[in-house]
Amino acid sequence: MKKIINHPENAVKEMLEGFAAAYPDSVEYLADHAVIKRKHLRKGKVAIISGGGSGHEPAHAGYVGEGMLDAAVAGEVFTSPAPDQILAAMKAVNTGAGVLLIIKNYSGDVMNFDMAAELAEMDGIPVETVIVNDDVAVEDSLFTTGRRGIAGTVFIHKIAGALAEKGASLSEIKQVCERAIERVRSMGMALSPCVIPTSGKPSFTIGETEMELGMGIHGEPGLEREPLQSAANIAEALAEAVLHEEIFQTGDELAVMINGLGATPMMELYIVNRTVQQLLKDKGFQVIKIFIGEYMTSLEMSGCSLTLFQVDEQLKELLLAPSDAPAFKC
Amino acid sequence: MKKIINHPENAVKEMLEGFAAAYPDSVEYLADHAVIKRKHLRKGKVAIISGGGSGHEPAHAGYVGEGMLDAAVAGEVFTSPAPDQILAAMKAVNTGAGVLLIIKNYSGDVMNFDMAAELAEMDGIPVETVIVNDDVAVEDSLFTTGRRGIAGTVFIHKIAGALAEKGASLSEIKQVCERAIERVRSMGMALSPCVIPTSGKPSFTIGETEMELGMGIHGEPGLEREPLQSAANIAEALAEAVLHEEIFQTGDELAVMINGLGATPMMELYIVNRTVQQLLKDKGFQVIKIFIGEYMTSLEMSGCSLTLFQVDEQLKELLLAPSDAPAFKC
């Protein structure tokens, strides 16, 4: 295991300390609960919280900022945060208008966030939850009932954050997020595994000339293991799988995310984008905005995912609204 | 070689196509010359151009945008662009106030950019050049006389771009950039090599428990090969090496960049930042801004670099001025 870390057991804690030290003007670190929260809260604004296992950096702390999340809760690597951590985050950022929890669809996350929501309600905090399940690769995978939540979650953070900033109510934000979740789909592929610091072992093995389509962001199995294809073939396979969903229709306006899984050079993401854009154009889609980079990673996994988000006028406006979150400046 | 590419010979061309396709509202791709230029030029503004070998993405095209570069010229991977490419970029973005060329200090780049500058002057374009040499690791390395230019170059792009946007003259921008270059120093380290697409072979070999301090961004040899250290020791070694330069004095205001070389998880960069910030605080420096992410990479090399930039009031204002370059939004 070749990593720039100290003791593997301290990696998450030290990562959060290092993150907080990078943005001292905008965030605070609640060390007892592994929570990164906005330093300056706005009274009466609905608070938006997300989080999950660590190892997906810059998710989720990188999305804490004006126009996006109010807090991010970090579990250990690839492990859901515990309910008491999530509850602490809710208490720290609720200013009276309630809290929306944005959850990626993994059984552990759903259970713990739901439990935290119940505890918060007992404390008188209004809470709603939404569950993101954008990954079209597999149903009922390891750790998940239904589709998994992956990079498309970042778009939901943005929609929720922008709407909250405009003063929308908790129920309205939940409703719009659910509409957005219905319209976002992703699929990923991997060339190489990642290594959880405390285990020190690769999450799976894969041959020097193989790739896996539909790989999850924790190294969960995907659709199929096959010989390494060209970038054009990979881009086509991802786009075809995502566009196979019947929500997408010729003429739709789309936002696109080409997401690197951690170790993929930007050069390769640009090359993937080249084919994706050609294909979307050929099929008559209108692309309104393209996001390329590392948004939802899997430690040092090599590979990428494609997310398509079918926007209407309201979703487009919210997606393009200002954000000063470190990993999503716009 | 496990990469998401098509034919290795086409990687740079297709990467630039994919980049241009990602930002159609703000950039244009001059395919004949491998140049990415701003779509909307402002008459009478000094044009700022940089570039160099490819493989350092998001450098240099990612820095094309309002408040930063007017054009980026791409060579093949780790190979300087030719003078005619650089000349074409100058002709494409000069609006009458002249052009500043920002060059990283490698012999090939310096020769080709200088030759292009001479050709442009013969065509009546006012040209100035500055050479960035921020890497304190080695003097007179492979490909370089003097110190190499690495991630600190991005700060110079920002200073030059912000000053040009304010309407400064070519000679004033050159002068301020030279002051900035005097105040920026970097050092990197690597855990693993990268693979140039057309060669298909790792740029060097390194043991499973080794790291190299002072490694260049093309895999050039560094200071020393040693057993893999903890993140804290690595951060200290980089910071000590950079701070050893006599330009840095207790009480100085610094901007900091923790740059990933391509395959390094953000988690590890945050952990490095934790120690760097502790150390700078202990030594009495005032950190005004921290940049963490991939700014000047080396394909899929694993490792990082630390850049410190000692700013005065003018440099601070320019560094923090707005930029809409895709890889440096602020």
TrEMBL record, chains A, B:
Keywords: Kinase, Transferase. One of its GO terms (molecular function) is phosphoenolpyruvate-glycerone phosphotransferase activity. It comes from the Bacteria. Pfam families: Dak1. Residues 7-328 form the DhaK domain. Its EC number is 2.7.1.121. This is Dihydroxyacetone kinase subunit DhaK. It comes from Bacillus kandeliae.
